[in-house]
Amino acid sequence: MKRAIIFGATGGIGRAIAENMAENGWSLYIHYNHNQQEAGKMVQEFIEKYPDQEFFSLKLNFLAEDDVIKKIVSNLLPISAVIFTQGITNYQFLGSQELDEIEKIIQINLLAPIKITSLLESQLLKQAHGRIIFIGSVYGGQASALESVYSASKGGLSSFVQGYAREVASANLTVNVIAPGAVDTPMNAIFDAETLNEVKNEIPAGRLADPKDISFWVENLLDERSDYLTGQTIYVDGGWLV
Known about the structure:
One of its GO terms (biological process) is monocarboxylic acid metabolic process. This protein has seven helices and seven strands; from the N terminus they run βαβαβαβαβαβααβ. It has helices at about 10-25, 35-50, 65-75, 100-125, 150-170, 195-200, 210-220; strands at about 5, 25-30, 55-60, 80-85, 130-135, 175-180, 235. A seven-stranded parallel sheet has the order 3-2-1-4-5-6-7, sandwiched between helices.
């Protein structure tokens, strides 16, 4: 049985990935932090639609102590793929941000995913075609003013993946980043319609990405034929910033 865990599965991109993977025969852990109701709803929908597969909700706060993270990860059933879609930002000048907010962004976007990857490595190395996929950002390659900490966290993911992929490539465990541009998700709902239209006008494709534009590339990286693609950051941005 193909089993994976999707961190941040109740978000816009996470849900699109979960729907795609469930349709393709994957059993899933649906991770959430705050949105228990949405996670439970997703699990129930998938159980009814795909009764031959297994679906579980999983609560984990990425700000939790290491011992808590270790305990939760140690109780997981064997998995062959991990997708990190969680992420937060704080849109303002660095000097206006509280120090604990800076630490929170780095912890959720970068440090906790690296720690969880370390904890899952031993079981992923046992799989014939193990997969680790991080959802990064175009701002990891071309940083944004007013999101400098967020940009640093996403750039850190790409650097981590470059190095770590070399450590595990011989075991057919691939590690990649998919870096979207502007995606039509609740994270971008903080901007008014005028600002979003300005962004759309800057994108050669003429629109924001749909979450399914991102889940398509996750599907391709999960394919067994993708064993030779690792350590990469794949920009999916409609030609915007790359």
